[in-house]
Amino acid sequence: MAGKALASDTAMILAAGLGKRMRPLTATQPKPLVRVAGKSLIDHALDKLESAGVAHAVVNVHYLADALEGHFKVRKRAPDVRISDEREQLLETGGGMVKAAPMLPDPFFCLNSDNIWLDGPNNVFSELSQAWDPERMDALLLVVPHTRALNHRGAGDFHLDAEGRVTRRKRGYVAPFIYMGVQIVSHRLLRDAPEGPFSTNVLWTRAIEEGRLYAVSHMGLWCEVGEPAAIKPTEEWLTRA
After folding, report:
1. Of 19, 88, 180, 201, which has fewest CB within 10 angstroms of its CB?
2. Residues spanned by the domain of 127
3. Does 1 reside within a domain?
C-alpha cells in the first residue's frame, strides 16, 4: 500500500487489566504474558508493531506490573517501550489513555494486548493510516465481520454507514462488525475526559453523537484470546494459516 506513511510512529498497548476471564492462568502472571503458540500475547502485539514500522510503544501496567516491566527489559527489539504506571489505581481503558496522553503524539495507535490477527493484503496499521482523516475523525476503529473472527461468540458491536461512520448495535439485535481492539485515536477524542477510571466507550459515545467515530473493516483474520479455552483453537488456527 504505497503512497501514504503511517499515521503515527507510536502505539499505546492496553495491558493493565486484571485478566479475570483468563483465570487460572493469570493467578501468577499478568494476562499479557500468557503464551499462545509459544509467544506471550504482548509479544504478538509488539512483533506486529515492529513489522509495521511503528517505532515506539507506551504500555500501561497495573496487575503484576513488575513482571511486565521485567519482560520488556529482556526484550531487546523494536519498538522501544515506555511505561504508563497505574500501580496505584487501575484506570480502565479511557482513563489509561488519558493518563498516558503526555507520552503520546497526536494521533496515536491504540491496541488491546489480547488480540491475535493475520494481516490481509496490508498490515492493520497501514489499513488504518490509509483511511485516517483527522479533519473528520476523532477516532478510527478497526473492525472485522463475523466470518473472519475466531473465538468470538458475541452479537457484534457496530454498524457502519457508506462512509464508515459508526453506530452501535441495538440491544437484542446482531451487528455485522466486531471491534478488533485496534484503533487510531486523536487527542481531540480525549478532551474534557472524566477524572479517574472510565471506559473508552464514554468517549466513543460522544464521538458517535458528533458524527466523528469511524471504522474500517479489516481484510484479514482476527482471533479473540480472552479466556483459556480460546488458546488451543487459536494455536490450531495459526498452524493452519
Report:
1. 88
2. 10-240
3. no
CB distance 240 to 234 below 8 Å? no
Strand-pairing partners, residue 42, are none
Angle 238-2-149 from CA coordinates, rounded to 5°:
25
> CA-CA distance, 164 to 119, in Å (whole number)?
20
Taking a C-beta distance cutoff of 8 angstroms, is the pair 59, 84 a contact? yes
What tens digit of pLDDT does each residue of 81-98 get? 999 999 999 999 999 999
Q: Which long-range contacts (CB under 8 A, 24 or more apart) does 80-84 make?
A: 80/55, 80/56, 81/46, 81/57, 82/56, 82/57, 82/58, 83/58, 83/59, 84/12, 84/58, 84/59, 84/60
Q: Provide the domain count of the chain.
A: 1
Q: What is the DSSP letter of 31?
A: G
- In-domain check, residue 104: yes
* CATH code of the domain containing 140: 3.90.550.10
Q: How many CB atoms lie within 10 A of CB 3?
A: 5
Asked if residue 5 is part of any domain, the answer here is no
Tell which residue, 162, 172, 110, has the closest CA to residue 141: 110
pLDDT digits (tens, 9 = 90+) for 176-223: 999 999 999 999 999 999 999 999 999 999 999 999 999 999 999 999
Which grid coordinates belong to 116?
491475535
